[in-house]
Amino acid sequence: MSRWRSKPDVSWQEQAKKKAALEAVSLVKDGDIVGLGSGSTAAFSIEEIGDRIQKEKLKILGVPTSYQAFIHASAKAIPLTTLNEHPHLDIIIDGADQVDGALNLLKGRGGALTKEKIVASASQRRVYVVDETKIVNKLGTNQSVPVEVLPFAYPTIMLKISEMRGIPILREASKKAGPVITDNGNFVLDVDFGPIENPVELNCYLKTMPGVVETGIFAKIADIVYIGKRDLTIQRREQRPNKNT
Ligand code: 5RP
Fold this sequence. Notes:
Strand order of the largest sheet: 2-1-3-6-12-13
Number of helices: 6
Bound molecules: ribulose-5-phosphate
Helix content: 25-40%
Order of helices and strands: HEHEHEEEHEEHEEHEEEE
Radius of gyration: 18 Å
Distance between the termini: 55 Å
């Protein structure tokens, strides 16, 4: 093994994420158009979709939610398409940063929230995969809310968010000087709101601010969440069918 290659991470969390991701991918059928999520958990599902295409000769097309997903899917020879050609998808499989009891999610630690939400909104079935550390009573508990904003608007948005008692921080890049630039050419604010009482309301309020592109609050979006547990069992939680009413 090359001295540069890191040892495989075999912590329970990695195993649980992988097992749960494989379970989610078992929902994918031949002929499906599949949204490909971003982050380390979604990466397990992209890996499995690629393997199933090879082994089972499936005719599947993927819509990546980020450059990360695009590069990974290309490396796995997953045929890709766009919303232009396929504005309606059968299923999306993605990760999340937090999940509450009503299956509302916080997403966007990887900065891909906008495309993740667009592709989810285009998908018939929205499936998320997490390990059990992501389950919370209230979203926002010890976790900031990512908000993608136009660079032109960020000082005004930071002020408005501070006035509503959020604490916004402009996300800094780690391998580049200055702010993170998203795949869409925007900035990300990480906002500490503390535990969120009403995720639907907060999401709607933030989206009224000119220059806010999208928020990481995915309220009433998830249909199914697979949770990889510490004992390596998988729990499946499902949204009641009338979630949009
Ligand atoms: C990226 C996301 C990711 O899905 C989320 O951050 C979870 O990532 P991971 O599976 O690596 O914990 O929303 O924008």
